[in-house]
Amino acid sequence: MPEETPGVANMKLLAVALVLGAVVVVFYNIQIRNIRKESRGTTESMLQMAVNRQAGDTILDTDIKIVEVPVPYAEGSGNYITEKDRKFAVGTKLTQSVRKGQWLLWEHVIATEQNNPSAKIKLKMRKYSFPVDPDQSPMEQLREGDRVDVWGMFIIKKKDPEAYQVIGNLKVMEVPSARKITVEVTPDVARQLANVATNALGRLWLTVRKPTEGGTVSEIHAELKTLSAVPIRGRGDFD
Question: Which among 145, 134, 206 has a CA at the least distance from the CA of 177?
Fold first, then answer.
């Protein structure tokens, strides 16, 4: 077998060197990427509410749980509190109501003018809370910003009991508990709702509207106008 000339041998050695160099570069980049990934972490330890709590309640250690989530998801979840700040969160008072399953955010524990719950109320409107029937209302699905219709069972003009839509398309401001809701209304509507509730047979209940439905808040049902003017004495206790 004829021997290779020095030039051919050098070319082969150069080719091998180039291949090995490329492999080293690829391996190096992979290692650097892995090191950076490990130092940054692929998950974040977020704090999630394990129970419903209202504004003013003190956060207990048993109220929150740690959940590992992907970093991109965490970064899109707002100003979240991590496991390392758990000791700070426990023992502080909530600035707004939070529900089971919500991520605990800094604005939930640090009061500012921007995140003050009352700052969300529109001009000349009021927040109004009232009890509802949890068996007929989809409370677990309700969230801030949802739109609901309020219903009740009434006896009008001595007729048989009948269900009426009291008012429609109210904006949900908070869901303090499974038996109560807070909506945004005018002062007059708040008064009318309070009076109507005392005339209802049992508690009022809710139906939820599709978010894209739009529309404006309806007036109190025409046949309930008289009931909305005067409450029934002794029927204001819903506890």
Answer: 134
- 8 Å CB contact between 80 and 74: yes
Give CA–CA dist 104/161, Å, rounded: 44
Kind and range of the H or E run holding 190: helix 187-199
Confidence class of residue 35 from pLDDT cuts 50, 70 and 90? Answer: very low
Residue 100, number of CB atoms within 10 A of its CB: 13
Give me the domains of the chain, ranges plus CATH numbers: 43-108 (3.90.1210.10), 121-229 (no CATH)
Cβ density class 153-188: b for 16+ within 10 Å, e for less:
bbeeeeeeeeebebbbebbbbbbbbebbbbbbbeee
pLDDT digits (tens, 9 = 90+) for 111-169: 665 556 677 889 899 999 999 999 999 999 899 899 999 999 999 988 899 999 999 99
Q: Which helix or strand (DSSP H or E) is residue 32 part of? A: helix 6-40
**3-state class of 168 per DSSP?**
strand
